[in-house]
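Aim 2, interim progress: modelling of the adenosine-5'-diphosphate-bound target.
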Amino acid sequence: MTKNVIRVEKLSKTFGDNRALDNLDLEIAEGEMVALIGASGSGKSTLLRHISGLAVGDRNSGTVEAMGGLIQKAGRIDGAARARRADIGFVFQQFNLVDRLSVINNVLLGNLGRINYWRGAFGRFSRLEKQRALEALHRVGIADKALQRAGTLSGGQKQRAAIARALVQEAKIILADEPIASLDPASSKHVMENLARINREDGTTVLVSLHQVDYALRFCPRIVALRAGRVVFDGTREQITQQLLKKLYGAESEDLILPPFATAMPEPSRIPVKSPPPDLQPAMTAVAS
Ligand code: ADP
Ligand code: MG
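Predicted structure of the complex, ligand included:
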């Protein structure tokens, strides 16, 4: 039996009188690559932040477990959650790199969960750590940028550096919150391909929130759809149809599928998993203009 590396049970989060997460249950098995979809405001970021222990649920709400250990329960972070978080890499929409540091130093920060704080803070990294950081950059295809300041990278390169940081961290789980939301189609494709490859080659569990459905269908075998803080669909990508999205999201579905895309999209079941997705540039340009 495959084991669950993420387990969310009866998680609720209320902001004022707004229920961002509503008694939500979710289980993700080791090695899965799962897309979290939903219109903006549906609770994607809130859920990811709760799984990583960056936020705590309501006092009367349930539990979050990662790698078999408790992250939070009844609105309290577990005492051992900090150590468990070393296994969880988080990739943010806005990259969260230190712009004034070199790319490789940013990637080396992935070691911080494991090594002595002061050694990390003073940039005292071993030769082996530096070598591993370079290898991680090589894996995401930007080893040649290692010595450049992070601030000088393009958005797509920054996101790949952020993924390299999670590689150095040796994260067992990567949570990525709309990692391609501010990227152009070519960079988006690179970033998603990198996440998919790490999932495939290392068995890293990936949970990635995506505002639009097309990339979810291309890269993620399992789709979890949120609406108003609840899971309204949890199944395979083959089960997702435009009709279903319309039913799940009503008027909000316009927000999730771009019409020119939707018509140009092949049937999900016929998408070859290993071949790169077709160039999305023309469709995106058409949408933008
Ligand atoms: P998504 O990531 O799917 O766009 P979010 O998780 O950011 O959705 O937000 C879910 C709901 O919770 C929204 O109604 C949002 O306004 C609200 N929300 C999120 N974070 C906060 C916060 N820090 N304070 C108040 N409301 C918040
Ligand atoms: Mg969000």
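Residues 224 and 272 are 21 Å apart (CA to CA). Residues 258-289 have pLDDT under 50 and may be disordered.
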